[in-house]
Amino acid sequence: MTIQEKLSLIQQEFKAKKSRFNSFGKYNFRSAEDILEALKPINEKYKVYFVIEERISEIAGIPIIHSVATMHDGDLSISATAIVGVDLNQKGMQVPQQFGSASSYGKKYALGNLLLIDDTADADATSNGTTNTGKIKLVKDSDNWSRAVEYIKAGGEVSKIITKYEVSVTDRAQLKNYELERNNK
């Protein structure tokens, strides 16, 4: 089996539980450690191993951590990268904690990119806060969702909602249906 075939199978069957809870945002999430723990049986099953390497650079005075997750199969490897800025102004954290937090975040997203971990099951997508795109996630059954539906029914456009909010493909289709229903009346 080729390394590409192995990675494809791993991406299809990989699951990592969300064992952590964010009490501020009130959501469960998976950590880099959860992902690494879930990879251990995969290593044995497919005779591969995973490594994460990091390097630090600076862009416009902001420390940047480049995390590279690599799956190795003998002499062959496949990698994915995540780039994370270190927030040195984060209150309540010492500098080592700020770098450690960014490092964990980078590892998690590099592994997520390599393993195609679905964002919809991740804290950034299930919280009602902003996502890594900087947009607010529009979540069904939230106050924002109700306002978006009212806006569309009153003549608003889905395209304008999408510029302000991050909207899943499924939810976007439902909003479009509200727009079509309004236009067909």
How much strand content do the residues show? 15-25%
- Largest pleated sheet: 3 strands, antiparallel
What separation lies between the terminal Cα atoms? 57 Å
Spatial strand sequence of the major β-sheet: 3-4-5
Alpha plus pi helix count: 7
Categorize the overall geometry: globular
Number of strand segments: 7
What oligomeric state best describes the polypeptide chains here? single chain
Order of helices and strands: HEEHEEEHHEHHEH
Summed over residues and divided by their number, the pLDDT gives a mean of 84
Q: Report the radius of gyration as a whole number of Å.
A: 20 Å
Structural class: alpha+beta
Work out the helicity level.
40-55%
Question: Any idea how many domains?
Answer: 2
Q: In terms of per-residue confidence, which ranges show pLDDT below 50 for 5 or more consecutive residues?
A: 119-131
Report on this model:
It is a single chain. The chain is α+β, with helices and mostly antiparallel strands and 185 residues long. It folds into two domains: 116 residues, no CATH class; 48 residues, no CATH class. The chain is 45% helix and 23% strand. It has seven helices and seven strands. It has a three-stranded antiparallel sheet with strand order 3-4-5. The longest helix has 21 residues.
